[in-house]
Design a protein that fits this description.
The protein is about 0% helix and about 55% strand. It is built from one helix and 24 strands. It is globular and about 65 Å long.
Length: about 325
């Protein structure tokens, strides 16, 4: 596994200028943060022409613009818990600022470990409580896109390379190009996952498991996305904010419809290959629950640190086209 280098783990650069509606801003500095759970992200200090100051969080090529708000005391509830009927705890962990660039607080003041709680609210709102100072601070905002902020990616982010655990068995190989519904992406990593098989074909196995692959794709200007490869189909995955989902009578309510619970168990990470914006832990397990509505799936994975929701949609066989990084002459693209 290569050492994670924070210098180039970003799409942006110090000094870039953008605009939120009619208020221009400049990215004057960046702090690179590593969590105890293995996550890496960037916190950009944005100074606006109007005089206000915000923070642009860049986490796995997703962006959240937040401003300081009145303090919320949410130190106790675990991930998934409801706070003040308005917020759901998305993540609770500790982190360390490992590098700074430009005009941000020096590391000698900010390098110590600090605790944080990430929040997810209704209507797409997000928030975080930072316990790094003597007085905790709360920041509230929403998810944004670079296009919405009149920013363009300056480069492809470079993440830490890994080659751990079980190798993926797939025609899709890291480094190749994957077209999803006509949009080109670069396949930068593949994660091997598994869970207990409720209906194994071989009943003599001591530990029958169902395995699948999660391919991490990058598209310039659109960030990262997931393509799940199952034995008989591909599914495109979209992250869902925890605050947008309501559990009622064993079913999930999301996007105005009810999703029926179909399966629950422990999902395990068995392998990780390629470049990832976090440090994977082989063998780590999380509680997973699957719901469905027609042919779409809604799933949640939760451990002691975080809860993550996602919607998956099946793709037709001609909607995924793969081209290897170094194609062999005469070899056709792969279609599932």
């Amino acid at each position: 596994m290569s050492k994670y280098d924070p210098k180039n783990a970003t799409e942006l650069t110090v000094g870039m200028r953008g605009k939120l509606e009619k208020d221009a801003f400049e990215l004057v500095g960046r702090a690179h943060v590593a969590s105890r759970g293995g996550g890496h992200w960037n916190e950009w200090r944005a100074v606006f022409a109007s005089g206000r100051e915000g923070w642009l969080a860049e986490a796995a090529a997703r962006f959240y613009l937040m401003f300081e708000a009145p303090l919320l005391d949410v130190d106790v509830p675990p991930p998934g818990a409801l706070v003040n009927t308005r917020w759901v705890i998305g993540e609770r962990d500790s982190a360390r600022r490992v590098a700074t660039y430009g005009d941000v607080a020096p590391l000698d003041q900010e390098a110590r470990d600090y605790r944080y709680v990430d929040l997810s609210g209704q209507g797409g709102r997000v928030g975080t409580v930072d316990y790094g100072d003597a007085h905790p601070r709360t920041f509230v905002g929403r998810k944004v896109t670079l296009a919405e902020l009149s920013l363009a990616p300056a480069r492809e982010p470079v993440y830490g390379k890994v080659a751990l655990g079980a190798k993926p068995d797939s025609e899709l190989v890291v480094g190749g190009s994957v077209s999803v519904k006509g949009d080109p992406h670069k396949l930068i990593a593949t994660v091997v996952r598994s869970a207990p098989d409720d209906d194994p074909e071989d009943e003599d196995l001591d530990d029958p498991r169902f395995s699948w692959l999660e391919h991490l794709l990058y598209r310039k200007g659109h960030g990262l996305s997931w393509l799940v490869e199952l034995p008989d189909e591909y599914r495109v995955v979209e992250q869902v904010e925890a605050g947008a989902v309501e559990i009622r009578d064993g079913a999930a309510r999301y996007a105005g419809v009810t999703w029926k619970k179909t399966h629950s168990g422990l999902a395990r990470t068995d392998g990780a290959w390629g470049a990832l914006p976090w440090v994977p832990r082989i063998g780590e397990e999380s509680t997973a629950i699957d719901y469905e509505n027609k042919d779409r799936g809604l799933s949640v994975e939760q451990n002691q640190r975080e809860v993550a929701w996602a919607v998956s949609t099946p793709l037709d066989e001609d909607e995924v086209v793969y081209a290897p990084e170094h194609p062999t002459k005469g070899r056709p693209p792969v279609r599932k």
